[in-house]
Amino acid sequence: MADRYLRFTATAPGRALTRRLGLPQPAALRRWTVEHPSLTGSLVHLTAGESTLALAPVLARTGLPMGDATAADSPAAVVLDASGVRDVGSLAAVHAALHPVVRSVAASGRIVVLGAPLDAGDHHQAAAQQALEGFVRSLGKEIGRGRTVNLVRLTDAEAAWSTLDFLLSPKSAYVSGQVIEVGARSDDGPPETGDRPLAGRTALVTGGARGIGEAVAETLARDGATVVVLDVPQAEADARRVAERLGGQALTLDITAADAGERIAAELPDGLDVLIHNAGITRDRRLANMPAERWSSVLDVNLASVLRTTDALLAKGTLRRGGRIVATASIAGLAGNAGQTNYGASKAGIAGLVRALAPRAAAEHGVTVNAVAPGFIETRMTAAVPLFIREAGRRMNSLAQGGLPVDVAETTAWLAHPASGAVNGQVVRVCGQSLLGA
Ligand SMILES: NC(=O)c1ccc[n+]([C@@H]2O[C@H](COP(=O)([O-])OP(=O)(O)OC[C@H]3O[C@@H](n4cnc5c(N)ncnc54)[C@H](O)[C@@H]3O)[C@@H](O)[C@H]2O)c1
User: Fold this and answer.
1) Among 161, 343, 376, 414, which one carries the catalytic annotation?
2) Which atom of ligand 1 is nearest to the CA of 208?
3) Residue 5 appears among annotated catalytic residues
4) Which of 42, 203, 214, 428 is the most buried (most CB within 10 A)?
């Protein structure tokens, strides 16, 4: 499971040899730790076009000292507000703003470009704003040194503070090349800025006994949630171990049971705030060799049970107002993968579910619905992949390495945050900007 190549390239001879051979140069990523919760260095705020966003107070909340683009130091983060770019001519201001600073951004630093929603009535504005997407994705692929580049489309800076806080922190180490849309402010109450934003809230994680689900449970508990670790009866010992460590509760049931939603509701008479659909399985075979059972078991665990339990918990009112649903897609599902017609169908279905349900769940229940789409994540599942395919999976992304379960967990925690009410209907890849799909 250990990425020996990453360790080798971190040594001086390893770096010299791999550079001479033209091999990938992954940089050790800086992730969140209790000791180092923020990026180190300044934040440079640039503007292209005429912006109406009130960004200053939101950027101040990141705690990063404001820097100067002309100073000689290496900024940890650059925010370019391009929300006012309305035509192709003013895209020159994007180049003019970033060209002088891009080289100096620190290793594991962040570039966040802010855009506006595309205006269907103004094709010049739409062209210029869509251009930002190609710009961000291209810069993400060339910038290197563990640096990430993302685009946030927004109309209200305050509604986007939890998103900017996440993207401008070490928590988003493996999120790059993404386009995230943030809507209007929701009425979730005052924004939560403490380091336990989920205190007093209950979160249920399906498939929480190990792998990515275990990391999600840990991270939500770190953020103050009381976690319920749900897994199959065969994984009861692991589910209990995780729940006890986190001061939560284990719940053993098969999520494909017809009455799974009712049983969860019965276990949680006081309600639920955060529902994480993480349980998932693969049963790979090419379609020509795939028996119906392999097809249906994957569709049932990964998609049908997600629909059934979501419907049941919304209908029963178990999910409280201000609640959050985060489902788990996969880049293999979005881009397609040989041998995974069943898995790809199930994970693409998650994206359809999220986009269609999000506006209705918000309007009728005050609940947001989003998905994470992991790329190559270092887990037991990917450790079992044959060596050469595993190496290809690890290197074929802009950061030239696999992600860790905690990267998916941090992204989930941002989507579950009480201040993320304006983030709805998004499918966010946690894939180091994988070459699979966009
Ligand atoms: N590891 C990756 O690289 C990767 C990439 C993309 C997507 N994903 C997705 O992330 C999620 C977690 O993946 P992982 O690598 O941690 O997998 P994993 O196999 O390590 O863990 C999955 C957990 O789900 C549980 N589970 C399976 N079927 C269940 C059921 N019917 N009811 C209740 N629990 C059930 C398992 O017991 C297990 O504890 C899955 O949805 C997977 O498809 C993983």
Assistant:
1) 343
2) 39
3) no
4) 203
